[in-house]
Amino acid sequence: MAVEAQTVYRLTDAQGNVTYTDDPERGGEAVTLAPLPSVSPSATAASRARPGQPFMPYDRFVIESPAAGALIAGASTPVEVRIEPPLRDDHRVQLRVNGELSQSALHSSAFWLAGLPGGRHHLQAELVDGQGRVQHRTEAVSIEVVAR
Length: 148
Fold this sequence. Notes:
Number of strands: 12
Structural class: mainly beta
Strand content: over 45%
CATH class of the largest domain: Mainly Beta
Radius of gyration: 28 Å
Number of domains: 2
């Protein structure tokens, strides 16, 4: 739905105050305004249909490595979190192992876990906003550490 361009008139009084009118009989300098852009109702409905999983402005926030069910030989492993689009400057990621905070919030998508005892462990990354609030958590990923 386009709106037609309209002419308005710019008036300046003796004190230099500027006013605008659409009444040509009041005089003034003619100023043509360009039509305003319009948004179709279907476009706004489509943008609301995708709520921006998992948390705006991210489309993807998952632990990519190690994979769920991975067998880890030894007590250490890198952890990679996939974040799309890239992490905002004011956001951080922290890592939990078995529900306990393991790595404090960093502006990073890569972590290194060391000293893990043998057995099953659950990893979960949390997205922390600029005010230190947890805004989203990844699904927990279970791994098995096999002692060497």
